[in-house]
Design goal:
Blueprint (H helix, E strand, L loop, with lengths): L12 H24 L9 H20 L6 H30 L4 H28 L6 H14 L3 H11 L2 H7 L1
């Protein structure tokens, strides 16, 4: 990560590599969504999506630490990672209602509950970071979409309301409207 710091990577190989990885991950997640939607055992993909979400959240938190040095190319990677996060969250959220209504085995339902709670806990810790992303014009829309998905599908109001009260830049959003 220090190669992306104030001195930069003179060859940009590291940045190109990271951007390419983010784009490939986005393509992979979208492909997985389309393939899994045609199967009946969709919940077997939930642990994979949870791992992707955990990796993306960790990566985005890491890149937020070097926020003063964000370039246009790094914002491209940021947008790709936010799109991966949004796609993964949307998939799990859309499938959750279906599994609540189905008559799956207790083991399967426990696995779904474990993944869902894991994603909820990860996203609650990431919500302040997303709130700070709203201030950046280039990633604001994706950040708001991820926040919306988290609020409507993964977090209880008594957990997210205090976080939004402390971290959400309401003046910035109102200024854009």
């Amino acid at each position: 990560m220090q190669l992306l710091g104030p001195l930069g990577d003179p060859t940009n190989y590291m940045l190109n590599f990271l951007i390419t990885q983010a784009q490939i991950l986005l393509i992979f997640v979208r492909w997985m969504c389309s393939r899994i939607m045609s199967t009946t055992k969709r919940m077997h993909a939930w642990p994979l999506y949870a791992k992707v979400i955990r990796t993306v959240i960790t990566s985005l938190k890491l890149f937020m630490d070097i926020k003063p040095f964000i370039s246009d190319r790094l914002e491209t990677m940021f947008r790709c990672l936010l799109a991966v996060l949004l796609t993964s969250l949307d998939f799990i959220h859309s499938q959750n209602k279906e599994y609540q209504e189905s008559r799956e085995s207790k083991t399967d339902m426990q696995n779904v509950a474990d993944v869902f709670s894991d994603v909820s806990l990860m996203s609650l810790g990431f919500l302040p970071v997303l709130c700070s992303c709203v201030e950046n014009n280039n990633v604001a829309n994706l950040s708001l979409a991820v926040i919306d998905t988290l609020l409507k599908g993964f977090l209880a109001p008594n957990t997210w309301l205090p976080v939004l009260q402390n971290h959400f830049p309401m003046q910035c959003v109102i200024g854009r409207i």
